[in-house]
Amino acid sequence: MYENLPKDPIILLSFINTQLRDHYKSLDALADALPIDVQELTDTLKAAGYEYDPAVNQFV
User: Residues 6 or more apart from 2 whose CB is under 8 A from it?
Assistant: First the structure.
């Protein structure tokens, strides 16, 4: 996973949602731009109670 991502799940959520809102049209576009493992990211945020909703392009 991308080394500079926040380790705290809530801060990670905020960072990822901000990136999605401001720079990327989808989770796949974010994953293509940043060297991140989508499955690891979604698993981490799911464990914190959040799932990606493509309709709003955010983890909710």
Answer: 34, 35, 36
Residue 9, C-beta contacts closer than 8 angstroms, at least 6 positions apart: 44, 45, 47, 48
Q: Supply the Cα-derived Rg of the chain in whole angstroms.
A: 10
Q: 20, 57 in Cβ contact below 8 A?
A: yes
Condensed to tens digits (0 to 9), the pLDDT of residues 3-55 reads 688 999 999 999 999 999 999 999 999 999 988 999 999 999 999 999 999 99
In this structure, are strands 52-53 and 58-59 parallel, antiparallel, or unpaired? Answer: antiparallel
Q: What is the DSSP letter of 5?
A: S
Output the CA angle 22-34-38, nearest 5 degrees. 95
